[in-house]
Amino acid sequence: MPKKGRGASGRSLDPLNLPAELETALHALYGHYAKTFELWEQEGIGVPPVFIVVCNNTSTSELIYKYVSGFHRDNDDGTTALENGRLELFRNYDGYGNRIARPNTILIDSAQLESGEALDKDFREMAADEIDRFKRDIIDRGGQDANDILTGGEIDEATLLREVMNTVGKKGRLGEQIRCVVSVSMLTEGWDANTVTHILGVRAFGTQLLCEQVVGRGLRRQSYELNEQGLFNVEYADVLGIPFDFAAKPVISPPAKPRETIRVHAVKPDRDALAIVFPRVEGYRVELPDERLEATFGPDHVLNLTPELVGPSVTKNQGIVGEGVDLTVAHLEDMRSSTILFHLAKHLLYNKYRDPGEEPKLHLFGQLKRITRQWLDGGGLQCSGGTYPAQVIYKEIADMAAERIKAAITLSLVGENPVKAILDPYNPTGSTAFVNFTTSKETRWQTNGPPPKSHVNWVICDSDWEAEFCRVAEVHPKVLAYVKNQNLGLEVPYLMGSTPRKYIPDFVVRVDHGLAEPLNLIVEIKGYRGEDAKEKANTMRSYWVPGVNNLGKFGRWAFAEFTAVYEIEAEFDKLVAGLASGLGQ
């Protein structure tokens, strides 16, 4: 999510590209809201329950507001297209794309109040009676605003929006039918809406008092009538994302002794023969063949939807007293497989095989749809922990799925030289000769040998597994040189969803594999392999390694992962033997 308020740069953010955990939280809380909304209608309450989203800044609030209520997306040709709200009861547009004069969702933040675009142009006409009542209230209070109205002045948009906010849930007032309020620090303790039933926090809460204030928005009772036992009926508010704690305990931090600091550097000139040179890659260029596209799917092209990736699918919301309630996204189960296939193939075409500023290559849609169906039917999408296949159309998850499919297509083209690595134009080459830093980390390996096989005097390890690999590399007769990739500058650009990231592999090992020129082997020591590890491995095998090899200027490169610490030596022996026999070239 954006770190600052909206400005010129904030306008380019995509409201449909919210984090998957946030989308799941919105859908889970909304699913329960829809049930509450239906119950209120059946009881003839007359006003809807209110759903509040509390955000950290004006950029975040605008993105969430557009996601739930709808917005117009700018096209490349200057036209706009409506993206209706993803939460039906909160939409501000009807089924024909027309804006609803009385909005279901309002955005309350400083930027919205200043924009003058808070309400539909027809709002004054549709809410004429309520506005007249508001005018009478202003006149009764007196002051400059009353004088302005008496002399023929109009109420400005910001004042009207504030009144809508202040009268949420009050019959006969401007905010009577508001269902959702997206806010940034505007719902203070003076806001007395008593129809708030659902609260979602999308921000960090640094103090317990702030949590109490936000939760307090849902604690105002709707009814103060006593029941037959002379007690109030129980009323509930469902809250997500706010770490409310009744028993916060102080944390005492004991003093810590300072740690030994060492200098890690290239041993020059004594070990210059062990220097390893590598390319600095900043991107990839892939040329598609003119003939039929195919895909080579493997285990790393599987996308496993878990609550860790998309957020909890079932959340038990339990109050201090009373019965708890399960918030779920079970309504997503109704989406048909053909709809999921279409959305995913379209996303692949528009986001992975479309040049910037160019029209999509529609002639590829049929082939991409065929490959996407092959991926889905072959078990490429796995759902566990109560997740649903429909969640793959979340923008962030769809980006991940599309990237897996694209990597499989690119992998099928290896050997035809379609991938080229794009080097940093200002610093295309890196070397172990420039390593020089200090550290106090205690897990480390001194590279004295004998004989020494690293240009750098120390390996700073992130785990004991890496120390075990150092031992294996130093005693293996086929290892000519190796180095830990720390402060080395070897970074691999990849995408996690639509977010550009940098992958820093663990080791580079120069191996004698029987040819005149040694092989440069990038090694990753990995225990738990999450979805990000699959993206990294796919990028290495499909883009970085073939792209660098096709440049022909940095020798031959390969990639290997080791996931079992007790088998590293045996697996490394097996890998080197395979390289020597030509299996890994």
Question: What can you see in these coordinates?
Answer:
This protein has a 5-stranded parallel sheet, sandwiched between helices. It has 15 helices and 25 strands. Helices cover about 30% and strands about 20% of the residues.
SS-derived structural category: alpha/beta
What is the arithmetic mean of pLDDT? 84
Number of strands: 25
Task: Calculate the terminal CA-CA distance, rounded to whole Å.
Answer: 42 Å
How many individual helices? 15
Described by strand count, sense and barrel closure, the largest sheet is:
5 strands, parallel
Principal-axes shape call: elongated
**Any low-confidence stretches, pLDDT <50, length ≥5?**
none
* Proportion of residues in β-strands: 15-25%
Order of the strands making up the biggest sheet: 4-5-1-6-7
The percent of residues in helical segments reads 25-40%
Q: Radius of gyration, rounded?
A: 30 Å
Could you name the key traits of this structure?
single chain, 585 residues, alpha/beta, five-stranded parallel β-sheet, four-stranded mixed β-sheet, 15 helices, 25 strands
Q: How is this fold's topology laid out?
A:
Blueprint: H1 20-42, E1 50-55, H2 58-69, E2 70-74, E3 80-84, E4 105-108, H3 110-115, H4 123-126, H5 128-141, H6 144-150, H7 157-166, E5 180-183, E6 196-202, H8 208-215, E7 238-240, E8 262-265, E9 277-279, E10 281-286, E11 303-305, H9 307-310, E12 314-317, E13 325-328, H10 337-352, H11 365-377, E14 381-383, H12 395-411, E15 419-423, E16 429-431, E17 436-439, E18 444-446, E19 458-460, H13 464-475, E20 479-484, E21 492-496, E22 499-503, E23 507-511, E24 519-525, H14 531-551, E25 556-562, H15 568-580
Parallel strand pairs: 1-5, 1-6, 4-5, 6-7, 11-14, 24-25
Antiparallel strand pairs: 2-3, 8-17, 9-16, 10-15, 12-13, 18-19, 20-23, 21-22, 23-24
